[in-house]
Amino acid sequence: MKTLSRLSSFLLPFWPQVLLAVLLGALTIGSSIALMSTSAWLISTAAIARSVADLGVSVVSTRLFGVSRAVFRYVERLVSHSLTFRILARLRVWFYQAIEPLAPARLVSARSGDLLSRVIADVETLDNLFVRVLAPPMVAVVIVLAMAVFMGSFDPVLGLVITAFLLAVGVGLTAFSLFLNRTLGRQLVESRSILRADLVDAVQGLPDLIAFGQESAWLERINASGREFSRTQTRMAQLNGLQSGLNSLLTGLGAWLMLFLAIPLVSSGRIEGVYLAVIVLASMASFEAVQNLPQAAQLLEANLQSARRLFEIADQSPAVTEPTDPLPQPACADLHVRNLSFSYEPEAEHAAPLVLSNLSFDLPAGKKLAIVGPSGAGKSTLANLLMRFWDAEGIFLDGRDIRAYRQVDVRRMFSLVSQNTYLFNATLRENLLLARPWATQQDIEAACRAAQLHDFIVSLPNGYETMVGERGLQLSGGERQRVAIARALLKDTPIFIFDEPTANLDAATERKLIETLQAVMQSRSVLWITHRLIGLEGMDEILVLEAGRIVQRGTHAELLAQQGLYRTLWDLQNRALL
Amino acid sequence: MFSRRLLALARSSNVALALTIVLGFVGGLLTILQAWILALIINDVFFNGLTREAVLGRLAALLGVVIVKAAVVWGSEVAANAVAQRVKADLRERLVKHLTALGPAYTQSERTGELSLSAIEGVESLEAYFSQYLPQLVLAASIPLSVLLLVFPLDPLSGVVFLLTAPLVPFFMILIGRSGEALTSRQFETLRHLSAHFYDVLQGLTTLKALNQSRSQAGVIGEVAERYRDVTMQVLRVTFLSALALEFLTTLSTAIIAVEIGFRLLYRNMEFLPAFFILVLAPDFYLPLRLLGLRFHAGMSGVSAAKRIFEILDTPVQTVSGVASNRVVQPENFSAVQHATILFDAVSYTYPDRTAPALHQVTFSIPAGQTTALVGASGAGKTTVANLLMRFIEPQSGTIRVGDTPLAQIPADAWRKTIGWVPQTPYLFSDTIAANLRLARPEANEGDLLRACERAGLLDFIRALPEGLETRIGERGARLSGGQAQRLALARAFLKDAPFLLLDEPTSSLDPALEAELQASVHELMRGRTVLVIAHRLATIYQADQIVVLDGGKVAEAGRHEELLARHGAYARLVTGQTTP
Asked: Which of B248, B269, B290 is the last residue before a domain boundary?
């Protein structure tokens, strides 16, 4: 209920449109009922009338209702679709604003990729909230009430009976369909996902299946899970068919009972004869209002589940909070790290192991520091802490704890070039401008020249207006990293953090990129995080990290001379060809 | 509106299909019967002044029709489902078989791989076509026709109104269908753009934050959505017009008939009974046609899914050229080739969607019992050699020989039984670890599996899992890292224990301690086999009996490490890390 009311609050700002859409929906169905009622009255009256005058306005109103349904339906669709788009925009903006402070700390989990695509699917589910979930019951309520009054005006019993049958379909069958959805529906989802997994495996794992000669065995497996799915689906179809049958039965029975009860009322003269046909035909037409409620209820369930998940994500408290009384922007880029320890889940049941443990180092302005170590040593965590994606105690900028500054002010000090450069599906220029929205074309070109990207860009037919494609995949890995470097240059911060910038590149591209990096990092502080021991000769200090601890420190030459992890990694690396 | 080819799929379920159609017709007739009895009763009571007792028989009949009709509705849904299930099962099997025949080269290529997946998932969307759209199509054909046949003798004038408006309904239906198709694709496109933008922003949120641009994006999201609303609403205003016309047609003609027969009743040109009967029938005449419009979308998505499915089924399977079946080497003669030298003789191959050949006139041998290392930059053709050796693809010219036998004469599945294959990243099936291992030898017992795991260095990992070998991959910490997946591939190769070994060495460097262990496992696996290794590690290359250097789809050099190094050619450039000029 809480979820529903919170969900409904998204409609509140649009209440006039909501009201209008519901009214138009009710008028659409009302027109059908009215058309059948006036026609029935017209024909019955005409059969016993003596002159046209006896028909009164019924001829006009029959024609009117013949037209009005279509018009109401048209306007209703326009209003409700426009409303849907508004809700959709509001939902997205709301959700973005809710998770912006949470990113990335609260949004990564063991399966972060899944989380994001599920979120998107959940938001999309909610797009139909109004048109297909909330509007139908509201319209139904209006029609049921109207029918109760209309039929009740002939006889209270008739009013009660039609209400009862409308509710039987609208509430009873809806409950039945919900029950089905909860029991068999769940089995159906499960057996479908097993079948789907088998099919996807067959396509994507085909090389392995064929290599091991298992393709026919796998086909047998697919057929088996297909049969299982089919069995469940058949059971579902039988019960769904039952539901359709019951729907047909209740509608027919309702109209029949109205007829059965109205006949004696006509015979006794309590109701004029011309109204007998009106009562039956109007009753039959009114069931349209409750017909799609079972479907709406099923969608409601899906909507509520999606909403619950979204609220759960959005309601988390951010991992990083702004200080109440922030310091002004740091004046110099002196970075000190003192006894820094960090764990991603300090409150977890089994206290998670420390990712960083008792780290101390200094990076005075203009100096170059490298942090190396095997993967999983906690190197990237350090970059995350410096960027204040997470907060920890022991990091000082300009002599003050970085948690005392505003987040934007801390991030103004650092440029991050990481292994997974994210490019937006937009033009190269737009992607570059993100780093400095007010940059001129000269600024951009200068940065791209320094990143050795300019010549490549102007060689493209659309130059800086080239679309980079989804996640920048139209560009090669090396080109994407150069865009990241150009961005860092445009952002023009005193400290550069390179977090495995060459991790996904082949050896030749890696070497070229490192040359570029070394060219652009003059005159700035650099923190170079890598597991590849290339280009480290010019570093002022190298920290060797293993399992979150510093195990060695010194210059490249010093470390090579020692028998230690650095030397081991060096030897290992030089055994690889490519 | 309906695809003949799609309908032909339902032939295998003739009985259920016939039942679906017959029940559809019966349902239509019952609807008409119900209207007739209702008209009779109202006529009796209202016009002839009979009491309820006098019409009890007819009331009972009406009740009977209502009940039978409900049963028919139920039955037709069950029958339609049976059709859908049969069709889907048949199609799924045909599709999987055909994809298998097309082979990994087809399913692993980017475009066709995506097509394969969407086609195979599209089989499910045929469900709605057969269980919803098709039955409704039957109703839409049967009810209006029967109504017309009944109404004409009763009242030709109303019959004419029905007859004139009825063809307009399909006309508008097609119009709605067309614009509806445009609408759904437009709406879909719009939503897709919106979602893609939203997804893009969410995925890049960390980047936006790093660039201090994350807060301003909320406004952009709102703007984008608002812009799409404007564009879409303009389209919708026009698109909804055809639906408006259809609604108009059906309700207005009901009104016209009501007024028309009303006046003739007034002038006593008509009886009440047929007049009222026609009025009751009027909505029923148009309803199935309108419902067909509602089901249209389900029908269309079925048709478009079928298009993708047929595109794959129509893709011809590449056949091995120049092999007469009588020359195929029979398994009994097969053991002779098991320990033979493999020879690539002027082999060329070009991928279907490329112009440049992946391999051009490549000649080299893989001597029996020795290790041959294949090296070269990415794109040099190493993977193509592996694909050819696995017979995922066949050479377009040149031959591969195993001893004296052309490889093409050996049945592919028999050949693959002799190769142990260790890809860089084995595909992990969503099943238990045991099942993933048994792919290599289905009859292997638990002891075999554990032994293979031990030799591949995977045993400690498996022992640490609460459910051991029976752990499903992806659950309970059994998310395999790249290194572990590699070991699983090794374990499979140990299980298979085949005379030839095709090994694709991992490029990514692992943890130093684990690295040494993995090397030991690999060496054990190589012992006593004919090995082709796509090598990335100097250690592997040093120890190879022969090194083949590929460059741009051609063999640049071949020989031992020292020889090649002395030559200062392509190999020397690779090893010393200089880029090729």
From this structure: B269
pLDDT tens digits, residue range A218-244? 999 999 999 999 999 999 999 989 999
pLDDT bucket at A288, cuts 50 / 70 / 90: very high
Q: Which residue has the tokens 């006894």?
A: A339
Domain residue limits at B220: 156-269
Looking at the structure, tell me whether residues B361 and B265 fall in a common domain. Answer: no
Whether residue B35 is predicted with pLDDT greater than 90 in this model: the reply is yes
Domain annotation for chain A: domains and CATH numbers: 2-314 (1.20.1560.10)
Greatest mean pLDDT among A265-269, B267-271, B390-394: A265-269
Q: Structure pTM?
A: 0.79
A429, two tokens: 């220029």
Residues of A in contact with B116 (CB under 8 A): 203
A vs B, Cβ pairs < 8 A, gives: 416
For residue B147, is it within any domain? no
**Cβ contacts (< 8 Å) between B168 and chain A: which residues?**
none
3-state secondary structure string across A306-370? HHHHHHHHHCCCCCCCCCCCCECCCCCCCEEEEEEEECCCCCCCCCCCCCEEEEEEEECCCCEEE
Q: What is the pLDDT of residues A196-220, one digit of tens each?
A: 888 888 888 888 898 888 888 999 9
- Enumerate the residues of chain B whose CB falls inside 8 A of the CB of residue A39: 254-255, 258, 262, 279
The Cα diameter of chain B in Å comes to: 117
List the CATH number of the domain containing B428.
3.40.50.300
Q: Based on the domain organization, do B244 and B377 belong to the same domain? A: no
Contact list in B for residue A263 (CB cut-off 8 A) is 41, 45, 51-52, 55
> Is B275's CB within 8 Å of A49's CB?
no
pLDDT of residue B392 exceeding 50, the answer is: yes
Q: Is residue B533 part of a domain?
A: yes
pLDDT, average across residues A281-290 = 95
Report the domain count for chain B: 2
The vertex-B503 CA angle with B501 and B504, nearest 5°, equals: 160
CA distances from B336 to A242, A506, B417, B499 (A): 65, 42, 14, 12
Q: Is B284 contained in some domain?
A: no
Q: Work out the average pLDDT over A271-275.
A: 93
Instruction: Tell whether B449 and B568 lie within a shared domain.
Output: yes
On chain B, the residues whose CB falls within 8 A of the CB of A245 are 70-71, 73-74, 77
Instruction: Assess whether B186 and B261 both reside in one domain.
Output: yes
Q: Within the 469-508 window of chain A, which residues sit less than 8 Å (CB to CB) from chain B?
A: 470-471, 487, 491, 506-508
Chain centroid to CA B68: 40
Identify residue A197 by its one-letter amino acid code: A
- The minimum CA-CA distance between B333 and chain A, rounded to whole Å, is 20
Q: Among B211, B244, B269, which residue terminates a domain?
A: B269
Taken as a whole, chain A contains a residue count of 578
Among the ranges given (A110-124, A306-320, B566-580), the one the predictor scored with the smallest mean pLDDT:
A110-124
Chain B neighbors of A573, CB-CB under 8 A:
509
pLDDT at B172 over 80: no
- Residues B422, B425, B427, CA angle at the centre, nearest 5°? 95
Query: Is residue B581 assigned to a domain?
Result: no
Q: CB-based contact (8 Å) between A459 and chain B?
A: no
CB B96 within 8 A of CB A219: yes
- Nearest-CA residue of chain A relative to B393? A207
Q: How far is B256 from chain A (nearest CA, A)?
A: 7
Residue A272's pLDDT band (cuts 50, 70, 90): very high
* Residues A78, B417: C-beta atoms closer than 8 Å: no
pLDDT above 50 (res B324): no
DSSP bridge pairs for B417: none
- As given in the structure block, the two tokens for residue A180 are 């089905």
| pLDDT beyond 70 at B181 | no
CA distance A180 to chain B (A): 16
Nearest chain A residue to B276 by CA distance is: A43
Q: Using CB atoms, pick whichever of A86, A192, A577 lies closest to residue B375.
A: A577
Min distance B237 CA to chain A CA atoms (Å): 7
